[in-house]
Amino acid sequence: MKLSSTVTATVLLACASVAQSQGFPVKPLSLIVPIGPGGGYDFTGRLLGEGLTKEFGQSVIVENKPGAGTVVGTQFVVKSAPDGYTMVVGGIGSIAHATALVKDLPYNPATDLVPLQLVSTNSYALTSRADLGPKNLAEIIAFAKSNPGKLTIGTPGQGTGQTVAALMLKSLAGVDLLEVQYKNAPPVYIDMMAGRVDLFFDASGTAQPFVKAGKVRGIATSGGERDFILPDVPTAKEAGLGEMVLENWTGLFAPAATPRPIVLRLRQAIANVAATPEFKKQMTSRGYSIYSPPDVEAFIKAELQRWPALLAKAGLKPQ
User: Fold this and answer.
1) Which residues, at least 6 apart from 188, have a Cβ–Cβ distance to it below 8 Å?
2) Is the peptide bond between 25 and the residue preceding it cis, with omega within 30 degrees of 0?
3) CATH number of this structure's domain 123-221, picked from the four choices 3.40.50.11740, 3.40.190.10, 3.60.70.12, 3.40.50.970
4) What's the CATH fold of domain 27-121+249-313?
5) For a pLDDT cut of 70, what percent of the chain falls above it?
């Protein structure tokens, strides 16, 4: 049977893609962290970068590209060549929340990115400066209602889970908190300890050393149950704010047009790294639970459909 030129071209393209994936990678890879150094995305990205360097035998260069929350770094990857050599760290804030909360988002996570693999989940912890008068969530909400705009809350930019958590707190509790915006998380703690910022939502594992040392006070966590890294801190639900449930997931994403064989190659390599005892040890020590859904693409699709409606119900609008 004689094949048409179109079918022949398709077959040749498919064969070329398979051949390309079998030799992949043949040069260093780039892993973009869309926030500044020191935060959860940065920690996860660098740990994955180390593991993938060993897995591939090629350098994985981790580069921070902060700006507009996570938008600048993520857009850089969206616009990069879809050849598997450029990836971005993404989480619930930058992927599932961004379309609903970032005004004029210059890309569509559903069509411009392909999920490679998720590796972890974590809750967020609401913390306060150690000498803040109100000592628990109920007292903070009561004070904020009586003193609108007086309490300040640090946020590390649009498209981050920390900012979404802060916005959810304001909306669900019906309080006016003054946002103080930063480029990433570490400077917020400096200002909290200096008494310049009152509140901050951060990844529970990142907040834990500050809470444990008494430098900040743990108020509530955002998970459905108490976080293993902060077992003495109640959930927001326990503290009286039942709808305040937010659990982050984090993984790697690539441009949507990346050839399927290369996507599968990267997906397997990331899974191999996430399964190593060293990766698990490092992640759990920082408060992350190891997590990868059986079908990562179906999971992300469901999250992209679910969160905009939930955020709208909570009264959150694009900024």
Assistant:
1) 154, 156, 180, 182, 197, 200, 202
2) yes
3) 3.40.190.10
4) D-Maltodextrin-Binding Protein; domain 2 (3.40.190)
5) 93
Encode pLDDT of 288-315 as tens digits. 999 999 999 999 999 999 888 888 877 7
Retrieve residue 285's tokens: 């020590």
Model confidence pLDDT, tens digit, residues 203-253: 899 899 999 999 999 999 999 999 999 999 999 999 999 889 999 999 999
Residue 84 has pLDDT above 90, yes or no: yes
Cα 138 to Cα 24, 166, 195, 216, 268, distances in angstroms? 54, 16, 21, 18, 46
* Cα–Cα distance for residue pair 271/259, rounded to 1 Å: 18
- Strands (DSSP E) contained in 46-101 are 60-64, 86-91
Locus of tokens 């879809």: 82
How many Å is the Cα radius of gyration of the chain? Answer: 21
